[in-house]
Amino acid sequence: MTARSVQVTVDCADPARLAAFWCEVLGYRVDPPPPGFDSWDAALAAWGVPESEWNSRSACSDPDGAGPRLFFQRVPEPKGVKNRLHLDVRAAPGLEGDARMAALEAEAERLVGHGATRLSRTDPGGVQAGHLVMADPEGHEFCLD
Length: 145
What we know:
Layout: E1 7-12, H1 15-26, E2 29-30, H2 40-46, E3 57-61, E4 69-74, E5 87-89, H3 97-112, E6 117-122, E7 131-135, E8 141-144
């Protein structure tokens, strides 16, 4: 069997806002509009998509092509319970102990400035490295590790 690429799809209320947030988290870029259009609004207007649907989806991608594409789709219902799947954002690779936690705290502070919420901290102990549990602007949990 050949390897397959993966797209991570996120149900949400405001696709454009979450795409912009995750671009900040991961260093991604919002996917550009199709050739011949200088913006997504221009493309959607030309295709006759009603303005009420312009923010029904958004996507962003790793500019280096290494990470998965993230696709955000508007759904009517709010997030109800804890995620069963979450992203671990590797914000302190190679660091341990106090240096690791300081790097994670600095990244958490930056992301809170972009709309994230800090949920909890697990300090290093035994074989477990420390990490922070965060939530994006719509409450989807992720870890800084």
